[in-house]
Amino acid sequence: MTPSGNHPLFEDLETLFTSTVDFGELSRQNSSLTSLLNLGSHYKEFVKQSPDDDTESSKSNSTTRQVLPFPNSTIDDIKPSDSLFSMSHQEENILLKHFFKKLLPLLDGHPSSPWPDLALKYCDFNIARSCFISLACMHMYECKEGGTEYYVKGVAHINNTMDHLIQYINETTTKIKLDGSSSYHMNSDEMAKTHSSSFVILVLMNVYILFSVLEKGKSAMARYFFEVFGTICQDSTFYENVLLTNDKKRSLLVVLSWYDTVAAIVSPDCRLPCSMPEWYGTITDSISTAKMMGCPGEVFIAMSEVCMLRHEKHNGISSVSTPSQHQKRYEDIKYRLINYREYVPFATDQGEEPYVSRLKCAACWMSAVLITLNRVVQPENYSEMNQKIVHEFINTYGTMDSKSPLVTQMVWPVYAIACECKTEDERTALLIYMETLYETAQMGTLYSLKEIVLKVWERNITQEEYLKEWLEDGIDYLPV
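Now predict its structure.
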């Protein structure tokens, strides 16, 4: 497999993202591939030609969501076959339009999400296409725009990408020491090849996590992939020479750190994140979690420290020896959280949400982390403190536009706050938020989120207690 970075399409992907022209009509024109601004030529190479090109594009009709004939199946239970990969030009056209137009804006808060461009530049062309099609199929199934056949096709395509991901991991981890040491000892050609392979791994991991989020929000492989992600990015030469030198590439580091940290903070076994604190970015960085999904990196750093506290409490260990040191640690994290305003710049970059919206978003994330911190440390009167935080969250979140990209990324905060709701009024408000979030984004993880929260309320148990029952051993929940 060789990267396809020199294809003309990769130089002008934005055209494909934003065009509303008839792709089928353009693809019939024999345009030169060297014309970078000609969408027809790009699309002709992106979607294979078919005799069906002369027919009208069929519209995707809404269908009633069907019960799968294999309700307990997993991704690995569905074996790919040629028939699952074959599709007409029109069907592929519909899927790609759905991915770029409807799904992509929901996957993060960046005004022009960088990762599809990275997938096309660093992955084999057909693998990149499988990435997009797998996600589109699963989302169309979840949106009830396609039946079981879309689910099965989506699984077949994600299996195709996972085969290549495992291959790349096996090849690359033999070259990089698993203790995270630098690859400086390689010659320049070996290093370039290893770094390219490492980046392909990050791209395909991102796709796998997104697919899991679209499906049910449950994953048996996520934890392993996060561990590999942490190992790769702790290689100092890869981190410094590849990730830090390019904002698009660094965005993938930021996004995977976001997924990893959220998965860690909800894990019933209280695992630690595989991400390093500096990977989230801060207010002074050109790329950060704030740029990608709205939550300041400084709040994510505090979240990772809460993960450490959860881990220590769960395992009966502590990095401090006295109660006063423990209290000081709590106060330090709390102080940095309540100073969230300091992490939101007043100036608004092109494509960003207005300052007030970004400030409210930061406040909501801060509230979710603070309420979790209080649950873990349990300071005096923490139940009353958390009830106050619930009301503050409701009054802040409720004033935000439900279709804002900042709100559609606020999955874990809604989950964390909802699990703390005690009164009927609180639960009614969060139920509305959960249902609206699902109606807006229509992803499987949001359906699972509501299921978990309702069980927590019904049985008056903690989220961790229910997740221990709901998740089988080795399975992680991904509320992202």
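The longest helix spans residues 188-215.
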